[in-house]
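idk why but the lab printer keeps eating my pages so im just putting this in chat instead. protein + FE2/S2 (inorganic) cluster:
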Amino acid sequence: LPSSRVSLTVNGTRRTVTVDNRTSLLDLLREHFGLTGSKKGCNAGACGACTVLVDGRRVNSCLTLAVRLEGVEVTTIEGLADGDQLHPLQQAFIDEDAFQCGYCTPGQILSGVGCIQEGHTGSPEEIREWMSGNICRCGCYVKIVRAVHSTAG
Ligand code: FES
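predcted complex ->
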């Protein structure tokens, strides 16, 4: 099967791998790099559990081909904290109790970071709309939006 070599930076660490051309970024992270924080919910772009940042922009990593990512910077939930210091949005999720089962949480947080960086945080309604690609089966939306809103300031 065709494979390609790709070099990218993941959470600040440069990585070079040779992967099957069909490998998704999500599988690259989980299966090749052991970064299992990004979750595989639907594997079809419908749930947002796999959300990561690529060069600061939110993507569904299940829909992103790894071999297309030469030279990019990827941020996953494992790379968000600064040592023992949680990212403010991670702390806000704890403070607001913004999860139950936790499966969607890494994707929610990366999407929330993207939403804040994009400036789509003027109101709870705006946050809800710009995070509508992230599904929470436990229905924690009110608290998730509250966490993003309080972090955005
Ligand atoms: Fe990627 Fe659901 S696993 S959107």
